[in-house]
Amino acid sequence: MSTASEPTTTGSGIALVDRLRAELGHSAVITDTDVTDSYSRDMMPLAPYGTPLAVVMPTDTEGVQATVRACAAAGVPIVPRGAGSGLTGAANAIDGCVVLVLTKMNEIVEIDAANRLAVVQPGVVNLDFRDAVAKNGLFYPPDPSSYDWCTIGGNLATNAGGLCCVKYGVTTDAVLGLKVVLADGSLLKTGRRTVKGVAGYDLTKLFIGSEGTLGVITEATVSLKPLPQAPGTLVAAFNDTAAAGDAVARVVKEGLVPSLMEIMDKASIDAAETYLKTDIGAGSGCEALLLCQSDSGGEVARRELTAIEQICTDAGADMTYVTDDLAEGNMLLQARRVVLTALETYGTWLTDDVSVPRTRIAELISGCARIADEVGLRIAVVGHAGDGNMHPTIVYDPSSVDESERAHKAFDDILDVGLSLGGTITGEHGVGKIKQEWLAREIGPVGMRVHRSIKQALDPENLFNPESMFSMFPTPASQLERSAGS
Amino acid sequence: MSTASEPTTTGSGIALVDRLRAELGHSAVITDTDVTDSYSRDMMPLAPYGTPLAVVMPTDTEGVQATVRACAAAGVPIVPRGAGSGLTGAANAIDGCVVLVLTKMNEIVEIDAANRLAVVQPGVVNLDFRDAVAKNGLFYPPDPSSYDWCTIGGNLATNAGGLCCVKYGVTTDAVLGLKVVLADGSLLKTGRRTVKGVAGYDLTKLFIGSEGTLGVITEATVSLKPLPQAPGTLVAAFNDTAAAGDAVARVVKEGLVPSLMEIMDKASIDAAETYLKTDIGAGSGCEALLLCQSDSGGEVARRELTAIEQICTDAGADMTYVTDDLAEGNMLLQARRVVLTALETYGTWLTDDVSVPRTRIAELISGCARIADEVGLRIAVVGHAGDGNMHPTIVYDPSSVDESERAHKAFDDILDVGLSLGGTITGEHGVGKIKQEWLAREIGPVGMRVHRSIKQALDPENLFNPESMFSMFPTPASQLERSAGS
What we know:
Helix content of chain A: 25-40%
Mean pLDDT of chain A: 93
Low-confidence stretches of chain A: 1-6, 477-486
CATH class of the largest domain in chain A: Alpha Beta
Largest interface: A-B, 88 and 88 residues
Oligomer: homodimer
CATH architecture of the largest domain in chain A: 3-Layer(aba) Sandwich
CATH topology of the largest domain in chain A: Vanillyl-alcohol Oxidase, Chain A, domain 3
Largest sheet of chain A: 8 strands, antiparallel
CATH superfamily of the largest domain in chain A: FAD-linked oxidases, C-terminal domain
Number of strands of chain A: 19
Shape of chain A: globular
Strand content of chain A: 15-25%
Distance between the termini of chain A: 21 Å
Number of helices of chain A: 16
Structural class of chain A: alpha+beta
């Protein structure tokens, strides 16, 4: 791990900066370290980051192509990024790279209400895009927690999820086609504007979630849903985590599909209550809170929430409450939304991301409680219960080497528990620079070999985000060879 | 184009057959041409097909791995196939190949109702799988028209759609993970059992729809939906195709999502009425029929269908009829389901597959009527109106060279119209051996280059289905070089 410092710009680095300035304009290429530092890392405290040669901010696809061609010619790696809301260090700079910032490509190119689709550039903020399509009576479902500042490009690069996934799926489910700048600077168009289409390999979904390692997405055509009804809300409190997990499993088994189904454990509830200076009604013995919404509208939503309420009661809930008042519903959800902010009262948070079968949620939460005891740190679990995607969040003091080590251990131990429950090491945040060995463990040597062969096919010079997701040089021995040979 | 004939088995071919028999057992390897002929082609009359060296029918993943290793060692290409219901020749044999038939791998390995997922082998018939999960109150949506005999493996290879896609998506939307035998015989596991997961590239969706060119799928883990309610049905007759197209566009724009929305043009209605020896109530001036279902249940379904009925009336429908009686609904749908069979009364059918934006359906239908006039052949258009996926079906006499040529011209002209309307050359059937030049036209040289680089990365010896979807040797000149060199 390195920290930000003055770059040692070589002669070839200066030549590259000059070429980029000549082609994109002086103001699009930034080398002032006061500025470039702020583009050198995302929101994951554990991830290493380096010092970029320059930050480049193109305003159109041609600018991206020019940047890629110039960097390819100079042999300088490119780290693409959006707003920097990521949680894996995937957008973190490496020493001497060009950070390619897409935030100035922030145009909503088209909203075609008749065909329920839109064309959007990567720099558009998720919430701005949602608001714009909503004005046309349409709905763009993916809603990561950072939706008020993350960009569509970052959402595409990480295949971002969010709270609505339980009913509406993740980013990849909403995308019809892409424009992608490849490693040789050529422009690939994938997919189409039609709802269905099987002409060739599904390249669209290959680039989505590839964390900027295969190309730079400069435009996306996305399908939109009808704008749903204002949701009704249910909250249910349990004095037993297993009972809450059981309620989730029963909701799934009964075929009920709420539009939101979140879970908070005791540590999350405590943090939210302290922060909000209010009793959120969970009661003193409350070990887990379920929050559900239905956006099916009127009588149907009421019926869905009543059915879920009955399941919660049968599973042993101490308290349930249903409202179809939107403002009250938002207030109830507030407890869920403030958890990370609330945890900052206690220290720095480090949020993990593990997805388990929906029948194993309670076991994951109890596993996290055990790990918290073992490492002696506060771990709060919040998560998208409806799809089994949990975010155990560790609170620690990063200025303490000992606490940092324990936090890192807890982070890994949580992944270990997730895998042992039949889960995956990342539900929606990605691999980035922090879970590479875990990716290898989850997908095995054949999976890694296929990843490397696809990377090699599309990016033979290892130009794009070369130290994210996986290394092209699998063993320490060959890494040494590479250093010696370069 | 070649036709079936006695194979000229070389010494190395005999050695391969001997090795396969030694490894898989004598009965798993068939060389009797009376039998192998029946595995040499699918349902697309235009596609070329050759004479296989042998048909191999493994019963497990290890058998597939042994077959792939033996063929790779012998340099003999493999054409994987299921039931042979395909409509592009993708499963057609090439001379001297091994046809790898997956129909004996037909076990439903697991149904996990609590997590709404199942694990299934490729040889399971779609309908058998649907029935099995339905017994657990669950629903596997993809329902290609051949669902009573096509297999899950073929559905995966082609990313098959069907009638339910308008509400439930296509095959790729239902798959969580795969087991795939790669070109070196190793076994790749993609994806996971959780609803969400972003660990690494989305290899699952790369293999789905790759038409057997990248590997052999030997198992799939699929997500299941709650079993929907028995559907209500609406039929609406229009004396103007444009009005029917307008009704479809308005349904989309209003945000209504029926569980089925099919369109039939006049030629289809006539064929169905003649075949069924009944007036299906469309009336004499009827130019287009819309058939819709809603499976949302009870009052909600009634409300949805009433809203669609109102839209149809506003758009100019001459007749509308709604029923919530399942048997009556099935009877009404019968007209749609018998069209291909009904067309056989007039000759051999050749069904095309083009997907257009949902606002352009009427233009596609009128384009097909114009083409029918130009080539002097009957073209009946049926299609999945709700997602713009149309199947113009040309009727001709294959024993007439002239009619065959005109049919082929019509087939191409329809694709041309589809592309000019912003559509794609295949909505759900695939490229196979009949739309290769059209694929190149739709995705362009950069797209083709990416396809070839991925194929090269995963199948460097061009072992899997080498003459389907695209050629690794793009120009005739290099093809000649290849022949000369081999």
